[in-house]
Design brief:
Immunoglobulin-like, Neuraminidase, four-stranded antiparallel sheet, 2 domains, five-stranded antiparallel sheet
Amino acid sequence: MKKYILCCFYLVFFINPFNSYAQVWERMYNDTNGTISMGRCAIQGVDGNLYFTSDPAHIGQGQMAKLDPYGDVIWSTTMGGTSLAATSDSGCVLASTGYQKFDFRKLSKSGILQWSKSYSFATQYHSLSYITNVSTGGFIACGLANENGYLIRLDENGDSLWTYRSNNSNFDNFREVFETNDNGFVVVNNISISSLHNMRLIKVNSNGNVVWNRLYSNMYGSTICPTPDGGFIIPRGGFGVSKFDSQGIMVDSINSVILSTISSLKQTADNGYIGAGSLYISNWDDDILFVKLDSLFNIQWTQTYYNGMYTDFAETVDVLSDGGFLICGSVNYSGPLVSTYIIRTDSTGNSTVGLNNELIYNDRPIKIVPNPFSVETKLYFNTSEEFSIRIYDALGREMVKLDGLKESPFVISRENLKAGIYFIHLIQNNELIGQEKMVVLD
């Protein structure tokens, strides 16, 4: 094994000879006209293939698409939306916000529209946030309608069984809902009172009648995840987690030093949790963040993806049948060409594979996995020619200079590097051909 001894740290050439997850990748998607779009949701279908949906970003029209396990498009449609639910026939239901209405469309596994249902409202102040399956059949969806939080229970054909509206005057926004063990539903709701962010938790029974209603000041919840004891957890900016019992009473609060936002949180097979969102780097610069928590909500590992120069973020995460994960979000949001970005990882969040397997770079010559890191990370370079690297700190000081490199990937060990942001430059023939951010944590 070849090593490079540096004044700050050393680099070790390392080739991964085996990876049990052959289907891991990162892919960028735009709508069917090639214009820009924001990724909203991605799920795995019953047949093992994948679905994602996007909606317009600035311009464009959004889309929905079915992908094979490798991320290649099987079919696509211009019916964009915000959320998806899989159906037992390997199709899915697409939830979207129309003009003064909520739209629900059922598509077959071949992309054929089987039914379409709409529910209208009096004003334009509405937004459909989330849809999920119900154990007794059908679906539950939530959002904002007429400045009130809104729940709608649907049967298998998209017909409404009941609705619940919050009837508050604080511009309620129901963000996400889950089914409880007694077939009721708990929804997390963000409201504004006296210019402050507040969080309301509401439980309704299987008929849509309120069981309890809790208000928490100076809190904000964008996702909610049930726990094995019948309670649930809600991530907070920071990254922190608040634990609630089955009655909606907060029983614990865990803080972290990572400055981040978690937009989606799911339970994993080991009774831990997986979260996806964004990691703050600087103004108008965030990276897609992936966080694994154990059953006690301690951080086990973190990964970041894309690591571009603009705002990148994840909207949803889904747990896959092989134990891996599916992330949906957007990249370059604060830049000129925002695009949907889908990531399929293994159970440890890796989205790259060994050199003898498929590795999709999307024309990005450098990939750093994991990033951020605290001990070591791997650098992958999409080049077969001899290259050099330079690593600079946030003040532009050169920390590492290596020439005559020919192999990829290799391992960077942190050694004496302080926590902070670094920039890696890839150089060939005295020309800069790629650069990425690298984040070191304590």
